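Teaching assistant's notes for section 4

Start the section by putting this record on the projector. Ask students to predict, before seeing the second block, whether S-formylglutathione hydrolase FrmB will look compact or extended. Collect guesses on the board.
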Amino acid sequence: MKILKPVFLFLLLVSGFNLFAQQGKVLEEQNLKSKILKRNVNYAVYLPPDYETANRTYPVVYLLHGYTDDHTGWLQFGEVNRYADKAISDGTIPPMIIVMPNADSSWYINSYDSKEKYEDFFIKEFMPHIEKALRIKAEKKYRGIAGLSMGGYGTLIYTLKHPDLFAAGAALSAAVFPDDQLVSTPDDTYERIFAQLYGRGLKGKDRVNNAWQSNSVLNLVQTKTTDELKSVRYWIDCGDDDFLSKGNCLLHIALTEKNVPHEFRMRDGAHTWTYWRTGITNALQFIGDSFRQK
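Reveal the predicted structure now:
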């Protein structure tokens, strides 16, 4: 019988620990009966590995999906639970709860005709429900938000409109549109995607109305003071081949001109899950750094 060498035994032990490394728990089909929206809203939750064995409270990140996706997107395609497990295990991010709500194609805002009040639902109903149902530190300094595409837009809208609620926002490939892009959008595209939000049957410059202006990321930045904008830490990440790169670059310029510290990344890539999967850990790390005591 051969005697195993100490080095080989050590490697076996390390690999064994990796196999049994703690994993977080995913609650994929949760729902809340919304009085504001008058329907059930599905959501998913990622709980950190020690949630069920510890008694403490945790910081939270609200993670928003993109257009035509739902609350399962970040789990199914983004594999966020796997990336969070690894990042928590190696100390890249602190243990945190990640909440992923379904927003359908609401763009996370209230529609011009008040038929859809998703922003009201999220701020007034969803967040209070989540932060009572789970052991969450319900304070600005322990609350972050992130998202991709439409969810990146929602991230920016909520941090700009409600800076008292979020310590940090991480927007990946955010749907930031300058006025001229909205004006030049083909009529059929506008009616399919934007008409429910800003008004139906609008053409050209008529689209740049009050409903648009009050929900335009670039316009909101211009209406805020530097001190107001500085109250939230911003992470902006968009691929160099992404059709949304122009709007993200303009946002970077607007924040720079207002002397607002922020992190801006333009990596090699397009509007794809490959890009978002390779960016989510850095985004969560940026938010997680806000939660840690200096």
